[in-house]
């Protein structure tokens, strides 16, 4: 993905995260980036909040979050 993504993985490795935890976190980061169709470092705070709310409320039939 990006240099930031690589650093994200390296930081988790240095903190002794398990391989399954690293896979889970990187999967979540890739899902976030894919949702907004841009690199994670280009996603702003409001977009992240909207994404979290969308995921939290996704079982209640809410529409896709707005892209700021």
From TrEMBL:
One of its GO terms (biological process) is DNA integration. PROSITE patterns: CB (PS51900). Pfam families: Phage_int_SAM_4. One of its GO terms (molecular function) is DNA binding. It comes from the Bacteria. InterPro entries: CB (IPR044068), Integrase_recombinase_N (IPR010998), Integrase_SAM-like_N (IPR004107). Residues 1-68 form the Core-binding (CB) domain. The keyword Cell wall biogenesis/degradation does not apply. Keywords: DNA integration, DNA-binding. The keyword Calcium does not apply. This is Phage integrase, N-terminal SAM-like domain.
């Amino acid at each position: 993905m990006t240099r930031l993504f690589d650093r994200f993985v390296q930081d988790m490795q240095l903190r002794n995260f398990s391989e399954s935890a690293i896979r889970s976190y990187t999967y979540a980061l890739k899902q976030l980036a894919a949702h907004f169709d841009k690199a994670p470092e280009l996603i702003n705070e409001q977009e992240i909040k909207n994404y979290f709310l969308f995921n939290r409320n996704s079982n209640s039939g809410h529409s896709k979050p707005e892209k700021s």
